[in-house]
Amino acid sequence: MKLAIYVHIPFCKSKCLYCDFYSIVSDRFEDYLFALLKEVELYKKVLEESEVETVYFGGGTPSVVPPSFLLKVLESLARFSKRFAPSEVTVEVNPESIDQKKLKTYKKIGINRISLGVQSCDDDVLKKIGRLYNEKTLRKKADIVLSSFENVNFDFILGLPGETDRTLDKNLKFLEKFTPQHTSLYFLEIDEGTRLFNLLKKKIVVLPDEEEVEKRHDIFVEFLKRKEFKRYEISNFSKPGMESQHNLFYWRNWNYLGLGASAGGHIGKERYTNVSDIKKYAEMVNRKIFPREYYHVNSEKEEALETIFMGLRTIEGVDLKRVKILLPLIERLQEKYTCYVKVKNDKIFLSERGMDYSKKIFSDLIEWYQEGEK
Ligand SMILES: C[S@@+](CC[C@H](N)C(=O)[O-])C[C@H]1O[C@@H](n2cnc3c(N)ncnc32)[C@H](O)[C@@H]1O
Ligand code: SF4
To answer: Is 361 in contact with 340 (CB distance < 8 Å)?
Structure first.
C-alpha cells in the first residue's frame, strides 16, 4: 500500500493572533518525541505493508525542534516500513527559526522540500498578526532557503489586518525577487477562540474590506500565472511538475497516517483524529492505546462524498468510477452549476471560476447529501 505520513510538531516560539492549529509555546520536546516514537510502533502492522511515498513535518513550527528530533522520527518510520524511500520529505519552517546550518542538516537527514511561512512581507501587517520577524529578516531567510533547496513553497495569507493594495504590491515584488517552485495562497480564516477573533469582536482590530480582498486575490492569482505557476488546487500554485506530492494524497483521498497530537489520518475507509493535548496524547501512547479522539469507519457513500470534496479542489478532479454511488448528486451539481462544474474523460472537476465559487458549491453538496440521507 502506498502511504503518505504527516507528523505534527506542536511547538511554537509564540502564538500568532490568527492561528487555530494546535501548538504550545514550550521548548520541552523530549517527552513528546518519546511519545511520537511510541505512536509509530502502534502502526507497526500498517507500516509493514506500506511503501512510504511522502513525509510531511507540519505544525506548529517544526523548525523550532532540533533536526535530530526529525531524524529520529524518520529512522523509526524507516525501521518499520516495508519500503521507506519517500520521494518528498517536507518540513514547515518559520523565518525566525532557520539558518544556513539547520538547512544543511535538514538536507543531510533526507529532507528535500521546505515550506516557508511568509504570510506577508509588510512589517506593519507582520506586527499586527504577531509574527516574530520583519521584512529584512524574511528576505535574508527566503534567500538562504531558495539557495539551499530546489523544492520550496511559500505560504501567504490574504485579508490580514493592515493589508492594502500597497502591501499586496510588496508581496508580489518579493515574489519577483525570491521565486519559489510552489506557492500557497490562503484567505484568512477567523476561528473562535483565537486572539484575533476576540480583538475583532471588541473592534480593537479591523479587517480589510472583503470585496477589496477578493480583488487582490484575483491580482495575486493573475501574477502567479504570469510567472508560470499553475493553479492545480484552489489555494495551491506550482511550477510544472512541482506540485506537492504529499498534499495530493489528501486531495485524492488516498491513504495517509497522521502522527502526533491533533493529527488526522485516513486508512482504507477508516478516518481518525488524535487528541490535541500533548499530555493526554503521551499518556495514551505510553499505555499502547491509539491516541484518538475521533474514529469512524466510512460507509461507501461517506467515502465517496469525501472523495468528491477533496477531488473537486484540484484541476485533475474526481474519477467518476470512484464515486458512482453518488451519481445523482453529481448530476444535480452539473445541472445547477453548468458553467462551473465540468465533466471530461470520465472525470468531474471545477472550472477556474468554479474554484473561486467553491464555498457555495460545497455547501450545496453537503445540504443535498444530508437531504438524501434523511
Ligand atoms: C499550520 S501553519 C504552520 C506553519 C508555520 N508555523 C508558520 O507559521 O508559518 C501552516 C500554514 O497555514 C496557514 N494558516 C494558519 N492559520 C491560518 C488562518 N487562520 N487562516 C488562513 N491561513 C492560515 C499559514 O499560511 C501557515 O503558513
Ligand atoms: S501560524 Fe505557525 S508559528 Fe504561528 S502559532 Fe500557528 S503554527 Fe505557530
So the answer is: yes
Among residues 1, 2, 6, the alpha carbon closest in space to that of 273 is found at 6
Give CA–CA dist 341/42, Å, rounded: 42
Contact (Cβ atoms closer than 8 angstroms) between residue 55 and residue 9 = no
Distance CA 160, CA 197 (A): 12
From the CA of 15, how far away is ligand 2's center (Å)?
6
Q: Which of 9, 13, 18, 19 to mutate to test the pocket of ligand 2 (most atoms within 8 A of CB)?
A: 19
Closest CA to 178 of 215, 214, 141: 141
| Cis amide leading into 110 (omega within 30) | no
Residue 216 is which amino acid? R
* Whole-angstrom distance, CA of residue 9 vs CA of residue 32: 9
Give one DSSP letter per residue of 137-206, joined into a string.
HHHHHHHHHHHH-SSEEEEEEES-TT--HHHHHHHHHHHHHS--SEEEEEE----TTSHHHHHHHTTSS-
Domain ranges across the chain: 2-249, 313-374
Which residue's alpha carbon is at the smallest distance from atom 16 of ligand 1? 19
Asked if 296 and 272 count as a contact pair (C-beta separation under 8 A), the reply is: yes
- What's the rounded mean pLDDT across residues 231-248? 98
- Write the pLDDT tens digit of every residue in 284-322: 999 999 999 999 999 999 999 999 999 999 999 999 999
Summary count for the chain: helices (H), strands (E): 15, 17
**Ligand 2 site, residue 59, Cβ cutoff 6 A:** yes
Going by CATH, does the domain composed of 2-249 fall within 3.40.50.2000? no
DSSP 229-246: -EEEETTEEESTT---HH
- Rounded CA-CA distance 364/81 in Å is 41
Q: Name the burial class of residue 359, with classes exposed (0-12), middle (13-18) and buried (19+) by CB atoms within 10 angstroms of its CB.
A: exposed
Is the pLDDT at 374 greater than 80? The verdict is no
Closest ligand to residue 159's CA: 1
Pairing of strands 236-238, 182-187: antiparallel
The residues lining ligand 1, judged by C-beta closer than 6 Å to any ligand atom, are 18-21, 58-59, 61, 92, 94, 117, 119, 155, 157, 186, 188-189
Average confidence score pLDDT of the chain? 97
